[in-house]
Write a structure and sequence with these properties.
Radius of gyration: 14 Å
Order of helices and strands: HHEEEE
Number of strands: 4
Shape: globular
Strand content: 35-45%
Number of domains: 1
Largest sheet: 4 strands, antiparallel
Helix content: 10-25%
Number of helices: 2
């Protein structure tokens, strides 16, 4: 996890989201590390349809709609794509659902 985010000051849910992306094979989250750091709590998780854009077929993959509460009390929505492979995984988190995946 990037030390600049001061993990000791983050909520457990923020640490979990950041760690999932940081430890995966995906690039930095589209929504930004600071957005993930502001998450106080994941209040709900709703699975969305499965679809993959990868050439290599993952073992499992899918999108989730995460409703989150930020540290300032505001509610927000993040979208998480997760794919597992024999060796490793991909975790992408965005603040909007990518239209090209519909």
């Amino acid at each position: 996890m990037p030390e600049s985010l001061c993990p000791e000051l983050l909520s457990p849910d923020a640490v979990a989201l950041i760690s999932e992306v940081w430890e995966s094979e995906s690039p930095a989250p589209q929504c930004g590390w600071r957005t993930l750091a502001r998450v106080a709590n994941i209040t709900s998780s709703e699975p969305l349809g499965l679809r993959t854009r990868f050439q290599e077929t993952p073992l499992t993959s899918g999108w989730e709609r995460l409703t989150v509460e930020f540290q300032d009390g505001q509610e927000g929505v993040l979208y998480r794509f997760y794919a597992t492979y024999d060796e490793g995984y991909w975790c992408e988190i965005r603040d909007s659902f990518p239209e090209d995946w519909l």
